[in-house]
Amino acid sequence: MPRPKKKEDTAEAASLQISDAGAKGKGVFAARRIELGEVVWDYAGEEEWIKDIPEKLWQYCFQVDYDKYVVPKEGSVGWFMNHSCVPNAVIMGRTKIVALRRIEKGEEVTFDYSTNVGWDGFTMECQCGMKACRKTVKSYSFLPEDLKGHYGACVSGFLLRPFPTS
Ligand SMILES: [Zn+2]
Questions:
Q1: Where residue 7 falls among pLDDT bands split at 50, 70, 90?
Q2: What pTM does this model have?
Q3: Is the distance from CB of 27 to CB of 80 less than 8 angstroms?
Q4: 46 C-alpha vs ligand 1 centroid, how far in Å?
């Protein structure tokens, strides 16, 4: 699994552009070759309780804890980054999106939304078009064990902690 490069540990380090991604609407694309382990985006921002976020924004939210979310700036890379069941980027730590392999210029940059969602009511019809598409994307707890093993610790950090019960 990749480790973030220290020197280029900023959202600006990787060059991305937002453009048309067909049926999915807009998506985020590599504007140059991105190497394995590069931080491509950082969702770090103001963390809000889900109940304080208008429902129409929920689909754009990035979950950072069982009860906290970041709403990306409208129109930003974070707003448009799409899911794929076979992604080329993963989540590391609380907010960083890191290249899982080399991403060529022009490729869409994606991560697996199931590795970010800890709310078990979540469900999304998938249009990633991959052979291994799960068709319906759900929360992390519904991920098949082999996929959990594949992602290892490259999921939102809070998902690796038990759900707080008190
Ligand atoms: Zn899919």
A1: very low
A2: 0.89
A3: yes
A4: 29
